[in-house]
Amino acid sequence: MRGGRWVIGLGLAVTLALLVAGAVLDPPAGEALSQWAQGVAEAAGAIACAMAAGYVRGRARLTWGLAASGLTLWAATDLAYGAALLAGAEVGDISPFDVGWLGFYVPMLGAVLLLYGRLRPERGWQGLLDGAVTVLALGLLAWVAVIRPAAAESSGGDLASFVALLYPALDLTGAAALAWVVYRHRGRAPRWLRLVATAFGLQVAGGVAYLVAQQRGLDGALVASAATYAAGGWLWVMAARERLARPERAWAPGRHNAPPVWSRAVPFGLVWLMAGVAAWGGGEPELVVPTLLAAAILTGRVLETLAINQGLLRERERLLVVDPLTGAFNRRFYAEEVDRAFARTARGHEQLALIAFDLDRFKAVNDTLGHGVGDQLLTAVCEAVSARLRLGDVLCRIGGDEFVVVAPEADLAGAVELAERLREAVRAAADRVVPGAGVTASLGVAVAPSQAQGPRDLLDRADAALYAAKAAGRDRVVPYDAAVRGPLGAGVASGA
After folding, report:
1. Which one of 180, 231, 263, 388 has the fewest CB atoms closer than 10 angstroms to its CB?
2. C-alpha–C-alpha distance, residues 42 and 29, integer Å
3. With contact defined as beta carbons under 8 Å apart, do 198 and 112 qualify?
4. So what's the pLDDT on residue 250?
5. Could you give the CA distance from residue 37 to residue 207 in angstroms, rounded to a whole number?
6. Cα distance between residue 338 and residue 407, in whole Å
């Protein structure tokens, strides 16, 4: 297929020549040549799809095979119909050609449904709701432009009328299936799939244009129909070539997480279009009801989108302030929280306690048992400590095994009592994860405003108390007071 560019170029030239001749010549010769132009393009698409089916495997082979069979049937019918017109044969309102044209939809819809099944669905209900709005809009437009006029002009109840109405019904079904495929895909579809969607969409648009030409006798609509069908056929060729040219990237759903903006804007535009059609039709119930239904669905879609966005914002905010390993708050949140707590203390003359602690012999656990076990230990410790905190207390991880607890409205005695509970919780959690390793906690306690005039001073004094607990033999709580002589400003001890 890669080496057949000159064949494709020749086919395009023949198609274009037939389209020009069909537009210039009067019927039946012009119409016959237009049919042949369609047939040549659709035959080219059928050959390309058949070649693609021969190179791919599994369900993809069936998809391309169905597309090839549908295009083959359509091309054969168009070529035969053009020959009949050129020969001057009488073709009635219903003929054997209708079997071929109507039969086209069966394999093509099957191919679209197979594509639908292969897609990775997007999260939430956005795709489903967007597709529902699109289907309603297309149904309304088809009803106003094609189906209702066809029903009004028919004699009613005979086979010819049924067949005439069957075409727009199948076109609408094809458009609906196409909408579901487009909106089901999460992210940007591969190029070959976009070409397939466009090709099928042109086939549907060509059918609508042909029916308009039949009903209203518009030669321009007939020419547009032929050109649209021909373009759809050649897009199938391009899609098959793209599929074979990039096998490694032929199917990568979800590679692009952000769908194109236009795909999300289309439903809004369609609702406004439906509203315009309903107003133009004088507010008839058959026009107003689907418009209101589409507006209600779109409202649900907007609300669902808002809920998703709010959830994403909350998750983003959480990730900015939460340590991903332990679930405790991080150093950034600690700095903000202690500033807020200190400000409340200054206004209300309340005390604020800060408990600094780290794990004794944690480095030995990492060195002997590995960092995986160390991570398990940190997680277990945070869970145990969090369970012992009061309402309003905040646990923050500010280093490897270094933690602080911001305890508002706690005096020195109450903070020391809380720290003792935390020490016991750490010992119990460590014994469960690394029994016999001797992992404990050394804790230092400081309070403001009596012992510190600012957040930095408060942390320095809690660090000094922690250092004193380390020096005194570990596994203990030491409050900061005048007897503590530690390296103020040196930070939390190393956790050796």
Report:
1. 263
2. 20
3. no
4. 40
5. 15
6. 9
By the 8 A CB rule, do 464 and 487 touch?
A: yes
**pLDDT tens sequence across 89-100:** 877 778 889 898
With residue 8 as reference, give the H or E element that holds it. Answer: helix 5-24
What letter represents residue 35's amino acid? Q
Contacts of 487 (CB under 8 A, 6+ apart): 464, 467
Query: Quick one: pLDDT at residue 23?
Result: 87
Q: Is 95 left (phi over 0), alpha (psi -120 to 50) or beta?
A: beta
Give the sign of the dihedral formed by CA 56, CA 60, CA 65, CA 71: negative
Residue with tokens 């903000």: 336
In this structure, are residues 183 and 134 in contact, taking their beta carbons and an 8 Å threshold? yes
Q: What is the pLDDT of residues 443-482, one digit of tens each?
A: 999 998 888 888 899 999 999 999 999 999 999 999 998 4
Q: Which of 181, 171, 192, 168 is nearest to 130 (CA)?
A: 181
Q: Is the pTM of this model over 0.70?
A: no
CB atoms inside a 10 Å sphere around CB 30? 19
Beta bridge partners of 357: 403, 443
- Work out the angle between the directed axes of helices 219-245 and 29-55 (0-180°, nearest 10): 20
Which residue stretches of the chain have pLDDT < 50? Answer: 1-2, 123-124, 156, 248-257, 482-483, 486-496
Nearest to 493 by CA among 470, 461, 459, 460: 470
Q: Give the Cα separation of 119 and 190 in Å (integer).
A: 11
Radius of gyration of the chain (CA): 37
The size of the chain, in residues, is 496
3-class secondary-structure state, position 490: coil
Q: What is the DSSP string of 105-136?
A: HHHHHHHHHHHHHHSPBPSTTHHHHHHHHHHH
Residue 163: how many CB atoms within 10 A of its CB? 16
Alpha carbon 206 to chain centroid distance?
31
- Dihedrals phi, psi of 32, to nearest 5 degrees: -65, -45
First to last CA, the chain: 69
